[in-house]
Amino acid sequence: MSLTATTTLHNEVKMPWVGLGVYKMDEESNEAKEAVLSALELGYRSIDTASFYKNEEGVGQALQETSVPREELFITTKVWNDEQGYEETLNAFENSLEKLGLDYVDLYLIHWPVPGKYKDTWKALEKLYKDGKVRAIGVSNFLPHHLEELQKDAEIKPMVDQVEFHPQNSVPELQEYCKNNGIQLEAWSPLARGKYFENAVLQELAKKYNKTAAQIILRWDFQHGVVTIPKSSSKERQAQNADIFDFELTDVEMGKIDTLNKEKRIGPHPDEFDYNS
Hints:
Strand order of the largest sheet: 3-4-5-6-7-8-9-10
CATH architecture: Alpha-Beta Barrel
Number of helices: 10
InterPro entries: AKR (IPR020471), AKR5G (IPR044500), Aldo/ket_reductase_CS (IPR018170), NAD(P)_OxRdtase_dom_sf (IPR036812), NADP_OxRdtase_dom (IPR023210)
CATH class: Alpha Beta
Shape: globular
Keywords: NADP, Oxidoreductase
Protein name: Glyoxal reductase
Mean pLDDT: 95
Order of helices and strands: EEEHEHEHEHEHEHEHHEHH
CATH topology: TIM Barrel
Structural class: alpha/beta
GO molecular function: oxidoreductase activity, acting on the CH-OH group of donors, NAD or NADP as acceptor
Family: Belongs to the aldo/keto reductase family.
Number of strands: 10
Strand content: 15-25%
């Protein structure tokens, strides 16, 4: 297993288990571009951005410069809250496509479930999918009740749900729902910005396997069948984040990490997000 390892989405598209997230990477300083180039050099093939990140152009520059063939890449971007609605989403997608310098994206996501808008937004994603402009469509920050509501009117079931997922917020109910409904769960902020790397359980396992706490968490993600996109602009850290395929946690160890769940988020709860700001 390596960075080329993939999961198969319910429409048979293959998605890498590990990718690079570029949230808060600066475009003007070339941080996003350089991070993507170093990740691609290390063997990463999945890159996750969003219109809200304001760095799609930097990602696009890296994609133009790399020698990695387009068909080997898996590029994700997302439609932001104030871009939602049917026509608005179609326009937002074209803007993202232009900034990325691509003919299509591999995965397009609704960034947050904006009340009263996400169903129209989903209709736009379905059109983009049918038109062949995206290879897969999905959502981000959707809880089971959002997914249920969306599917009442949807023609196509989301292929992916990208949510805040780490040992202190492992959303067991959503894990179960996605598993039962053939929706691939994906973790944003899988390392919770390093806020609890010193945890005794993680430290004990890190010592046992000669790994870092971050690598233990990312392996835990993988064994839970969760796609992950750790963010790092450091090539050394990117290499570490990818080095999770040469060991395996036992069921007991997986269970120990599961007990760290406190429903403790570092980002907003989807039902408490201020959608009017």
